Amino acid sequence: MPRHLKNPRILILITVFFLIFILYISTSNFQSKSIITTNNSDDISYLLAPSSYGYKNFTEFIPGHIPLILSIPHGGHLFPDEIPDRKQNIPGIVKSNDINTQEIGHSLSKRIMQILNGRRPYIVINHLGRSKIDVNRPLKEGVEIETSNETQIVWNDYHSFIRDAIDEVDLRFGRGLLIDIHGHGHPENYIELGYVLSSEILSLSTTVLDNNIEIASESSIRALYTRMKNMISFSELLRGEYTSLGGKLQSLGYDTIPSHTHKFPMPNERYFHGGYSVQRYGSRHNEQVVDAIQIE
């Protein structure tokens, strides 16, 4: 069954809020090393660099101008007959698309461009359907290695584009945010935010979350917390009413996990805590300066 991202319009607005929160409120002297200026704010044509494409145009990289990267792994609309369907029987394997995630990514980019006078986020898109490839899994799980060399190329193209975007954001800004856009079909209808922290970790007390430094270090927003730990606690960054992405969404009436209202999933509730891309590229690895959040 196709899976939907919940409440896409409000996510667009809140993502803009959280980007500003991460990059500007966290430090008073944040500045790009290569800010582009113009005397005519209405003329944005100078900012519009063309997309780059991978093998057979199955992947796309849209260059950006701000330290925000949108990755869209499961919204592909192409299902070429010459590429075999995935046949893996690994537990938890999903082969259906996340509906409208490409459209949401482009809408978010357009809204940001309106706010920032034409400056846009980096976007990395997989255009192949999920029945053909899953770029949000390790290579051996995401493609039919024995029957399709083409999907291996596509998988590598997609992750090379993400790596290129991260390297450029690191070089230009020294920090940034990767948002991995997904959808889900869980009956609770929550917006699920994944920081690579399991349900069990999220259910720990505020005291444990704030005093066990290994928890923050293993999250995909480690770098953000490191910059802000003298201002707010880790639990506030995860689920504070005014200091977290989930808290902001919840305050606007959209049930979100984690947040100040729904701090952690109940034992009978399913929850996606963050897949391959967020685990690989988020700042849980000490050398990484780009934080990552999975949004479902």
From TrEMBL:
Source organism superkingdom: Eukaryota
Name of the featured protein: N-formylglutamate amidohydrolase
- Origin species, per record, is Rhizophagus irregularis (strain DAOM 197198w) (Glomus intraradices)
